[in-house]
Amino acid sequence: MKQIMTIETYNQLKAIGDPLRAEMMMYLCEGPYTGQQLSETLDIPRGKIHYHLKELEKNNIIEIVKKEEKNGIVQKFYRSVANGFTISEELLPFHEVDQTTRQIIYSMIDRAKKRVQTAPKEAFEKKNNSENPEDWGYMSTAMEIEASEAQFKQWTNKYFALMDELEKMGEETEEEKNIYYFFNLGFQVQEFAFKKREKKDS
């Protein structure tokens, strides 16, 4: 499974930009689902789910990862071909790119909210009210920074390398492990929402 897949055709962009498909993709990026499972999870008729699965599969955004026979019926398990998606610069002139990206992000935010609601109690506990982040069971940051586009891109590469390192660490250790959900979002804005901190005189 790829870490990132580039959306390279207009048809792929249309396929992944549909609001329902974007919501389905949040689940299919996490693991394999049948059409029936997605239908029950999203409370949407199975026929409608299967139609959208076929559109995503036709555009090589998802794939069948396994098949199981149950009561004489072959169940197909679908999964995203990548953990995340980016859009080719060649598609940028299309005005739909902006709305498609926003729709994907909206779905990601909704999915993250559901994960917060269903997380175990200990996920958000602080040990002894410690101010040391190492003693917290979670990470939470909201901040605004100034950087050039080149600096932002350089930092983004470091971030993804760090996430790859974290994923490999979990595979290598034999210690008891917890499951951690990460949702990160960074984007350009027009102005500061937080009051800008004044730099201290050196």
UniProtKB/TrEMBL annotation:
Transmembrane segments: none annotated. GO terms for molecular function: DNA binding; DNA-binding transcription factor activity. Keywords: DNA-binding. Residues 11-121 form the HTH arsR-type domain. Pfam families: HTH_5. SMART domains: HTH_ARSR (SM00418). CDD domains: HTH_ARSR (cd00090). This is ArsR family transcriptional regulator.
